Amino acid sequence: MSRGIRVTVRGAFDGLTPEQKAALLADAAEHDFLKTAYTPDGYLAYDVAARPFFTFRYLIEADDDEDLELTALLGEERAARWLDAHGYAYKNLTAAAVDPAQTPLGARQRKAATRQ
To answer: Domain segments of the chain: what residues?
Structure first.
């Protein structure tokens, strides 16, 4: 059985040229942290006007027997491929995977569940 795993990949742009920074700034509205979503193609969020950091968010389908660590590595590889393909140098790439089905309910969710 397949399920959606949320993978968050974080890193920093490294040594952006003025042209690269200008291109990122021009597209900044499409990569706003306030519009962040986990998607199969990955959502890239950044604010290079303030700091060089970025975040990719992927929704990766995984089988029950797949390890979260392997899924995180897959997300990290996808982010690295995207950055390489677009010519952006980067550093400190890290990834974390979370299975929403295994995440404990928050206080609001518990309260809502008891009402039903």
So the answer is: 2-115
Tell me the C-alpha distance between 21 and 51, whole Å: 11
Domain range 2-115, its CATH number among 1.10.260, 3.40.50, 1.10.287, 3.30.70: 3.30.70
Task: Name the residue type at position 67.
Answer: D
The residues, ordered by sequence, that sit 6+ positions from 43 with a Cβ below 8 Å of its Cβ are 31, 35, 36, 37, 56, 57, 58
Output the CA–CA distances (angstroms, integers) from residue 79 to 34, 37, 73, 114, in the order listed: 20, 15, 10, 40
pLDDT, tens digit (0-9, with 9 covering 90-100), for 27-37: 998 998 888 89
